[in-house]
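>> Question from a student workshop board

For tomorrow's exercise we were told to take the sequence and the ligand below, predict the bound structure, and bring the output to class. My setup keeps failing. Could a helper post the expected result so I can at least see what it should look like? The ligand is NAP.
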Amino acid sequence: MTARLLDGQALARQIQREITPQVADFTRRQGRPPGLAIVLVGHHPASEVYVRNKLKAGSDVGFRADLERLPESASLADVLALVERLNRSDAHDGILVQSPLPKVLGPDAASRVFDAIAPEKDVDGFTPANVGRMVQGRPALVACTPSGIIELLVREGIPIAGRRACVIGRSDIVGKPMALLLLQRDATVTVCHSKTPDLAGVCREADIVVAAVGRAGLVTKAFVKPGATVVDVGMNTVTDSAVAASLFPEEHPKLARFRERGSVLVGDVHPEVADVAGALTPVPGGVGPLTVTMLMRNTLRAAQARLAGSW
Ligand code: NAP
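>> Workshop helper replied:
Here is what the output should look like for this input. Compare the format with yours to find the bug.
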């Protein structure tokens, strides 16, 4: 392996250390801590874990972090009423509605619920107001995963301006905002997706590759220019032994872990990429911890902006 590992976990801890005294200062001045409300509807096993991590991170930095739980049987009107209550709450500066919402709420439930969140409390950066502001380069609450990746690249001294960047994936929560943030930092950006011909050839032109697809090991050596920086957003649980064997050589500790547990968490980037990339984010321990930390930073910023009336 030659690639330098970009340690998202260590950077997340560093940013938390930077945030904590600012939270304490806010609390001292206001007589209350910044407040984060997380809405969880129904019982989705992965969401339970994500929400627990976010609540813990919130209380670790000194926030009031509240779980607002609704049952699986809740209607869309119930969810919207809860969001409205939190919009009006003086104690809550940030509102996050955990995705996915139960399918019974209908195909447009997520957009209806996100649209209902007050933009100044939209710490996920998903509302049209925040997305529009970001597109125009104005102050905004920006989606946590892409803003965490920019923070990582900047603090690791990886040049962005004037470089070619390739983003694989065009979702509203990762791919599109990622491409825009790289563009704002003067990269020349290509956005790829499932219909892109010669994906490997397009990616091989890039100095920075961001893979946000959700396909285990999609990005192989053939996608990566020697020395390029590769950011792996994907989080894929592999349960198929043939897939695990195609990703890891026989002696790899992750293959041993797979055989022990029957599953292993992997990214979109094939482990062989470590032999050609200049720098690489691991999975786990790369982008994931930064996403949670950016949520904390957005909540603090939302609290400070509400207080200053500057949103
Ligand atoms: P998504 O909404 O499913 O979007 C996936 C994107 O990948 C789509 O734009 C799709 O193209 C593209 N795609 C699918 N197959 C492809 C292929 N074979 N070649 C090229 N492009 C392909 O996913 P997402 O929400 O952006 O998440 C992506 C991954 O990141 C998932 O594994 C997710 O779990 C992970 N994630 C991690 C974090 C974190 O904090 N670490 C945060 C968010 C997401 P089309 O548009 O053409 O369909």
